[in-house]
Predict the 3D structure of the following.
Amino acid sequence: MITFDKVSFAYGTQEVLHEVSFSINADERVAILGGSGGGKTTILKLILGLIRPDSGKIIIDGEDINGKTEDELRAVRMKFSIVFQEGALFDSLNVKENVAFCLREYTKMSEEEIDRKVRELLRLVGVEQAMELMPEELSGGMHRRVAIVRSLAAYEPQMFLYDEPSTGIDPVNVDQICRLILDLSKDGKGFIIVTHKIVDALKVAERFLFIKNSRMVFDGNRNQLTNTSIADIQVFMNELHYKA
Ligand SMILES: Nc1ncnc2c1ncn2[C@@H]1O[C@H](COP(=O)(O)OP(=O)(O)O)[C@@H](O)[C@H]1O
Ligand SMILES: [Mg+2]
């Protein structure tokens, strides 16, 4: 579904990605790993056409997205459900209204249907009781879960994109987020999770990409990841022994 063909991207003179290539099918469970500032979020923005590569091609479902207009890109973005790192809810709306907002914006549902759908979605992530709360009253984990269902509310994506979904969240909530990520991909919908926390990536993903110095230095399964001779990944893996 997604192919990067020698994609390079720089912010000004700072090269963030250098000739990065990979192909990901819509049903794959992929983690993109790398240190902070390594270009992970940049990859997600490129997939959505929010920024354009300096060179190389990005092909989504067989189509090069580079020449696309804003309108055409909107159709591409609808294929994905994205939860950005900031994952921010609207401060001034309560939980229920936050989720309903997307339904009003993107669908033609009646208020009654919206109400039913919002309850169903919030039940799915176990925050039904918090429906009337304001975002500031939620724990970090609940906040993230509401942000995930809000992005699910409007349409059926082919694939989910998560940017650091477990960052800044306590371990119990991380486990809930991981379970939600797996639940949502049960019917064959894949995801890309971008994270600098290998521990969490191992909980959900089957395939692992690793970026280092703007380059994709590893692309393999769990077994290959565990047995890699790449020193930088071993350093990452060592975190496991301290934190697990
Ligand atoms: N809008 C921007 N303008 C300039 N530099 C940016 C911008 N966004 C990100 N960067 C820089 O690009 C590099 C990669 O960023 P990013 O993709 O966000 O990394 P990651 O998500 O892996 O932490 C970082 O050094 C970051 O400071
Ligand atoms: Mg990032």
